Amino acid sequence: MSFDGALPADQALSVKFWGTRGSLPRCGAEYQRYGGNTTCVEVRVGRRLFLIDAGSGIADAGKSMMDDGPQGFDILLSHLHHDHISGLPFFIPALKTRCEIRLHCGNLDGVSPQAAFDLMFAPPLFPVRLEVFPGQFSYHGFHAGAALDFGDGIVVRTCALDHPGGATAYRFDHKGRSLCYISDVEHRPGIIDDALVSFCRDADLVVYDTMFNEAEFQDCRGWGHSTWGAGVALCRAANAKRLGATHHHMRHTDDMLDGVAAQVEAALPGSFVAREGQTIRLEARVLETAA
Question: Which of 79, 189, 218, 222 maximizes the CB count within 10 A of its CB?
Fold first, then answer.
């Protein structure tokens, strides 16, 4: 979602996690520290703002943005599985008459995602259609692998992912910093994906699908998800600096994720397990010039 309202001048590239779960939202005492909402990530590129995915976390994201008065949003979708789009009707800016919500999808071979949304958000599956909202929804298909030009010098690179039905990764580069968002993806044990390595080359932060532990991965081959070990291996191969583990399994409790966080930090210092509400800022890099 791009932000067409006034934002303070900011040279940083930043990411905020509004939802960190995969499959289903969770609540309860065991899911407080890392959060229970399904995936939604806010990325700010200087003065511009995007959302990636529209899981249940987008409800809180929208609530936080009402005071800024944006008139338009670009929502970049990794794919259209329920846990990545189910929060869309609860995105409060959609209740604003002048608000345009632009939905971008790259895993349908360039086809617009409108037909899928019209099926998902309509009786008998949902009480109303998105077209009845005061806000204006528009639908934009592209081929995963394309570069998306949003103007003002902002070009978002994309990459196709191995996931049932396909999925799309996004890369943001700004002021000498870079951020990759990779969910949902299945790795091949012992094999590094050269295209993904190139996509993540020298990134400051790779936000990566770490839904399964190793035992779960073996039982769920073909489901389209990965592990923190595979994420670390990708970062090392690509010379990426940090891993942000996300898309947590719905049954992974806070205590379990604390254990993962310790292992990830030990394997690749500076890496972390994403928590709902957490913000990571990548300050603009000052490039040295010859005297």
Answer: 79
Helix (H, G, I), strand (E, B) or coil at 76: strand
Question: What letter would DSSP give residue 248?
Answer: B
Instruction: Show the domain range for 85.
Output: 13-282
pTM attached to this predicted model: 0.93
Q: What's the confidence (pLDDT) of residue 286?
A: 56
| Residue pLDDT, tens place only, 246-261 | 999 999 999 999 999 9
Distance from C-alpha of 172 to C-alpha of 174, rounded to nearest angstrom:
7
| Geometric angle at alpha carbon 282, from 3 and 34, rounded to 5° | 85
In a domain, 8, yes or no: no
Query: What amino acid occupies position 99?
Result: C
3-state percent helix, strand, coil for the chain, nearest multiple of 5: 25, 25, 45
Cβ-contact 55, 86 below 8 angstroms = yes
Closest CA to 235 of 261, 196, 273, 272: 196
Helices and strands in the chain: count of H runs, count of E runs: 7, 14
Number of compact structural domains in the chain: 1
